[in-house]
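Session log. Operator J.P. requested a structure for one protein chain; no other inputs attached. Running the standard single-chain path with token output.
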Amino acid sequence: MKNIVILFSGNGTNLEAIADKVSQEKGINIALALTNNPNAYGIERAKKFGIKTEVLEHSKFKSREDYDKALVDAIKPYNPDIIVLAGFMRILTPVFVNAFDLIINIHPSLLPLFKGTKAIERSFSSGMKVGGVTVHKVTNELDSGEILAQECFNSDGLSWDEFNAKIKEIEHRIYPKTVLKLIKD
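Structure written below.
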């Protein structure tokens, strides 16, 4: 059995998209969905799929490193083959990044453009004629790991709502596909 651990902080739409695809596969299990936000709606989405959920609030720790150590300790028993960041709004330290072989993230821009927070907003207001989504490996440098998948779209003339909807549509399609490809290889 191949084990996936998903980390999230909010609504959990990418968690749901991945869970929907994984539920159709044999020999692959989402062993844990963990959030740093006790009010994250993603908890309900995970429960809908029968995924074990845990809450580990970062605000209860003195430092990022202390939190990341507790995160490692919470995840290790699940023996993950891959850790999937699905809207996990934390910058991870080497304490976490160096503890696992494969951690991936999805970013709502065409990396290396618009690294960090508010990427959708910055991409939309940049004046560029394209927007896009990137799936990448997580390294100790923010949004700089190997690009695993990337898709762009013509954003010329799109409203904010149309732009944001297109980002979500691409995320929900390419992230599950990338996760399955990696875990099956």
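Operator note: The mean pLDDT is 96.
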